[in-house]
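Teaching note: in complex prediction, the entire set of molecules is handled at once rather than each chain in isolation. The prompt given to students was simply: 'Predict the structure of this complex.' The entities are:
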Amino acid sequence: MSFYDVIISRRSIRQFKAEHIPREDLERMINAARLAPSAANLQPLEFVVVENKKICEKIFPCLKWAAYIAPEGNPKIGQEPTAYIIVLVNNEIRDKGFEWDSGAGVENILLTAWEKGIGSCWLISVDKKRVRTILNIPRHLKIDSVIALGYPAEKPLVKEYLDSVKYWKDKSLQFYVPKRKLRDILHFNSFK
Ligand SMILES: Cc1cc2nc3c(=O)[nH]c(=O)nc-3n(C[C@H](O)[C@H](O)[C@H](O)COP(=O)(O)O)c2cc1C
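The expected output is the structure of the full assembly:
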């Protein structure tokens, strides 16, 4: 796949195969985040990678999936993520205005994963208090978000946006994601 194809074919995945992700692939994802752009090059992001099955089982109930269609978008039993990346912001380095950094870092992770055929879902609907306790995360590290990872057991399709941004599933459980048209968001030279 070309780099552009990696970008445009990435979709949020919420059904996964029960297959372990190699540690080197997880390390590669964090390395890609490490080298992402960072405002004032402050680099406030840190990460906890969870790939131990028992700890994954504890993280799973802390997450909310696909709010527009809940509970239809939840991973089915046996199709839960096989790893998680907990995205942390070191508040001793930066305590506000870090969202651009986390956006850039997380996108690098999602694309590095997808290049290897690893599906992901970036989640902010997270019971952060519970995650903090489970993983013993110290107070000066804010939990920004969680990235769920695993080999995909579904293939969401992009549909042209008509009148709603709400994704949906049809009777065969095919997942569709509406995206706005290029001509509606692109303005060359001046706003028309
Ligand atoms: C900042 C952010 C937070 C998100 N939080 C959640 C979440 O809590 N749960 C979830 O299932 N998906 C979450 N998503 C995934 C979006 O629902 C998904 O990106 C969107 O529907 C577009 O689909 P696509 O990623 O396949 O292009 C989040 C995405 C972003 C960018």
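Point out the following to students. The longest helix spans residues 99-115. The chain has two domains: 3-154, 156-192.
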